[in-house]
Amino acid sequence: MYPAELVKPMSQDLTEFGFTGLETSEAVVTALDQPEGTTLLVVNSVCGCAAANARPAAKMSIQGENKPTNCYTVFAGVNKEATEKAREFLLPYPPSSPAIALFKNGKLVHMIERHHIEGRSAQAIAENLTKAYDAYCK
Questions:
Q1: Which DSSP letter does residue 21 get?
Q2: Are 31 and 22 in contact (CB under 8 A)?
Q3: Omega of the bond prior to 9 within 30 degrees of 0, cis?
Q4: Most CB within 10 Å of its CB: which of 9, 33, 34, 42?
Q5: What is the per-residue pLDDT for 49?
Q6: Which one-letter DSSP state was computed for residue 25?
Q7: How far apart are CA 105 and CA 19, in angstroms?
Q8: For residue 15, pLDDT beyond 70
Q9: Beta 38-44 vs 70-75: how paired, if at all?
Q10: What angle is formed at CA 32 by the lines to CA 137 and CA 92, rounded to 5 degrees?
Q11: Residue 4: which residues within 8 A CB-CB, separation 6 or more?
């Protein structure tokens, strides 16, 4: 587990932008087990190589006309219980952090794993998400 003071700025990068931080397994179930609507989940991470582009990409992606109804985040390596529960919703994908997932009506419909984030610009990741929003968030 990472020290709270180390991850606070990385966590706030999303929560101050309107993402709701999920810190318990109960909060994850309540957030992701929705029978209607669309939900974006960012599995935040300390990893500088990938998370440094994942957070800005997630923020850029929700600036358009089509966007998820709800935006949440869990922090891998910080909120262990919440992250483990979120990863159950991300199956069959293996654990990945960072990762970005889109749900529609409680079902996972789009997933961006770490290997899709590494080496890509925030703009390219945001464009990937925007295309998913155009398909699922109308």
A1: E
A2: yes
A3: no
A4: 42
A5: 65
A6: H
A7: 19
A8: yes
A9: parallel
A10: 90
A11: 78
Residue with token string 């932008």 = 17
Question: Can you give the residue range of the structural domain that contains 127?
Answer: 4-136
For the chain, how many residues are written?
A: 138
| Number of separate domains in the chain | 1
Q: In whole angstroms, what is the distance from residue 61 CA to residue 125 CA?
A: 8
| Catalytic residue annotation | 47, 49
| Stretch (H or E) spanning 82 | helix 80-89
Percent with pLDDT over 90 in the chain: 80
Whichever domain contains 109, its CATH number is 3.40.30.10
For the segment 36-63, the average pLDDT, to the nearest whole number, is 90
What is the end-to-end Cα distance of the chain in Å, rounded? 38
Nearest to 36 by CA among 102, 86, 85, 107: 107
